[in-house]
Design a protein that fits this description.
Elements lengths: L2 H9 L3 H13 L1 H17 L5 H13 L4 H18 L7 H14 L4 H4 L11 E6 L6 H14 L4 E4 L8 H12 L3 E2 L7 H14 L4 E4 L8 H18 L6 E7 L4 H13 L4 E5 L9 H9 L3 E5 L7 E3 L2 H15 L1
Parallel strand pairs: 1-4, 1-5, 2-3, 2-4, 5-6, 6-7
Antiparallel strand pairs: 7-8
Helix pairs in contact: 1-14, 2-14, 3-4, 3-14, 4-5, 5-6, 5-13, 6-13, 6-14, 8-9, 10-11, 11-12, 12-13
EC number: 3.6.5.4
Main location: membrane
Subcellular location: Cell membrane; Cytoplasm
Length: 332
């Protein structure tokens, strides 16, 4: 059985898997339409797998924002695999492409370890710090994750650490009301570290399970950004050893390669432990997921696949690849 058909079987075998795959199919519809059409067109034009086929495939993958470096690695891997399996028919390459896309995501970490969720603490407070530039959907992500965690039975508290952007505190407060979660806040212009400190004390006294902390996203001055985030992290570490348990960088998938450069800047400024990729449903360039993972070695932990409060999903690399190839599988 081909790798694609194994994915199809997995995501249609039980209701839970089917719900996950449907979310990815819907959320990746723009990327899939563009990607599938181009791959199918490529396969139709080339009966044989030769150097010209790989050159055109390279263009398709770069067009999906998989990233030049990642694409070159992938093409080399594909060439070796095609040779090893003695594949001549271009139709058979589709399954190998899907297999290698999953392999590129997992890298050398091994298939089980790399598909990790959030680093939640079992019997103590979990502190999650959110970083990212303005306008990427950081506050919305915090609100949606608060809803998700609360629906799992956890006691959640939010901290409005972005005291610089006009309206940031009000926006987080609105999300707090919407998902019925308390927000710890100071006035605009306050010291972010002081707000985070108060958030930690409140979380401790109220015996919260999770504290979600917003931060300012000014990239104009990298030194200031680095100093600000370092100060916030020092406050957290002093109050709770080994925290923050996650530093999640929120990126807007619709910005493509610009998201990759933001990821590089923030990973230089602080220890980013995972990526949240928002607005994946609004772009035809969903390949950025693979570029970030392959070029920076940072796992994508959450993805935004729609507008609804329930559309923030734990990232599943196999469901992602299935979402990319679903139309081709349906055609078969």
């Amino acid at each position: 059985m081909s790798f694609l058909n194994k994915l199809k079987e997995k995501f249609q075998s039980n209701q839970n898997n089917e719900e996950v795959s449907d979310k990815y199919k819907d959320g990746l519809s723009k990327t899939r339409k563009s990607f599938s059409e181009k791959i199918n067109d490529l396969v139709a034009r080339y009966r044989k797998v030769d150097e010209d086929f790989f050159e055109d495939l390279e263009e398709v993958l770069i067009g999906a924002d998989v990233g030049v470096s990642t694409v070159l690695d992938l093409i080399d891997e594909l060439k070796m695999e095609v040779k090893r399996r003695n594949i001549n028919d271009s139709k058979e390459v589709k399954s190998v492409i899907s297999e290698k896309l999953v392999d590129i995501y997992y890298g050398e970490d091994g298939k089980e370890e790399a598909a990790v969720g959030l680093n939640m603490q079992a019997d103590e407070l979990t502190v999650i710090l959110f970083v990212g530039v303005n306008g990427v959907g950081k506050t919305t992500t915090i609100g949606k994750l608060a809803h998700q965690l609360k629906s799992e039975g956890k006691k959640v508290l939010l901290t409005a650490g972005d005291t610089f952007r006009a309206g940031a505190i009000e926006q987080l407060s609105e999300w707090g009301k919407r998902v019925d979660v308390d927000v710890i806040k100071h006035s605009e212009g306050s010291d972010p570290a002081a707000v985070i400190y108060d958030g930690i004390q409140a979380a401790k006294s109220r015996q919260a399970d999770v504290l979600l902390c917003d931060t300012a996203g000014r990239l104009q001055n990298k030194v200031n950004l680095m100093n600000e985030l370092s100060k916030v992290k020092r406050v957290i570490e002093r109050e709770i050893p080994n925290a923050p348990h996650e530093v999640l960088l929120v990126l807007d998938a619709t910005t493509g390669q610009n998201a990759l450069s933001q990821a590089k800047t923030f990973s230089e400024a602080t220890d980013v432990s995972g990526i949240v990729l928002t607005k994946l449903d609004g772009t035809a360039k969903g390949g950025i997921v693979l570029a970030i993972r392959n070029e920076l070695g940072i796992p994508v932990k959450l993805v935004g696949l729609g507008e609804k409060v329930t559309d923030l999903q734990n990232f599943d690399p196999q469901a992602f690849v299935y979402g990319l190839f679903a139309d081709m599988l349906d055609d078969e």
